[in-house]
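In this supplementary section we document a worked example of the pipeline. Step one takes a protein sequence of length 399 as its only input; no multiple sequence alignment statistics are reported here. Step two produces a three-dimensional model, which step three serialises into structure tokens for compact storage. The input and output of this example are shown verbatim.
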Amino acid sequence: MIIQPRTRGFICLTAHPEGAAENIKNQIEYVKSKGEIKNGPKKVLVIGASTGFGIASRISAAFGSGAATIGVFFEKPASEGKLGTAGWYNSAAFEKEAHSAGLYAKSINGDAFSDEIKEQTIALIKKDLGQVDLVIYSLASPRRTHPKTGVQYSSVLKPIDQPFTNKTVDFHSGVVSDISIQPIESEDDIKNTVAVMGGEDWKFWIEDLKAAGVLAEGVKTVAYSYIGPELTYPIYRNGTIGRAKDDLEGTVPAINDILKDLHGISYVSVNKALVTQSSSAIPVVPLYISLLYKVMKEKGIHEGTIEQMQRLFAERLYVDGDVPLDEKGRIRVDDLEMRADVQEEVSKLWDQATTENLEEISDIAGYRDDFFQLFGFNFDSIDYNKDTSELVQVPSLAE
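The serialised model returned by step three reads:
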């Protein structure tokens, strides 16, 4: 099969298995180049393990700390004549590399919100690892079926108090335009978004893992969040998604209570703005990221997902002494993004940005590259005109 990118808006409908493998290899090589993560985790569960921060977390644990990893994800498998999703090919490539390095790696494909997948994961931990000492929660989904009630919730991306109008960019064409987004129609929009993206499911996972006896003494668990600059607050941090992130962050004390007798602890890590499948869908954010990339690359402080996660593990989670936290108890690896000098320059460029000057004052080309590389495209080492087998399987998929 000749596999080329096909897009619809902010979604790429195809994924390239060889490009995904190249992406995973590059991330592994970066982690290995940084050396061993001292006192790092040894048995790790990653919930939401196939793309973005999730796969980068799995790579950082495995190749930075020699950890055995179990990854949970919900991806479309490859079949004859039908491509798998990018996350499917990422996971296949990760497992292949991990096994070649002599590392334990198994995966579970299914709805992580469901009790069935939680039970399957617990059974696999008991059988193969006994216990885990790190649980990463990195789920990103537009919908959730509640495991106790069966009610399905859908998240929405909306401001809360009033319409939001600002610049955005079509990153495919480079056209800068104004966009207006209407506010929520009712409080149900907030409740539904919190139900999907808040902290309840993270708490359910920890409760079930604890009850099953598969959490090790001193276990750590981390979920991921984002704050961003004031210009994105109306649509992000002060919008429906922000309410869900507030709920996620507010779940930390409850999880700490659950883990108390194990001397375990939970954290929320606030990460940098990056090109992900999720962030590409948020109006305003692609323009902000393209300007941010320009500034941070010029200053020599740019990071992608793997650089972020390697630094989270090596310089935050597994340091001697106390884990550095902000005034609200959060880990911050968005510290370079939020530096005053970076934000001042981005703000100036934001005011200047037009369709005509975008290529000059931003890194929209870098944004496009990062977007397509999420799906295995735009790697110079891959011949995309070559016949490629779509039938790539995840080697150790648990049944």
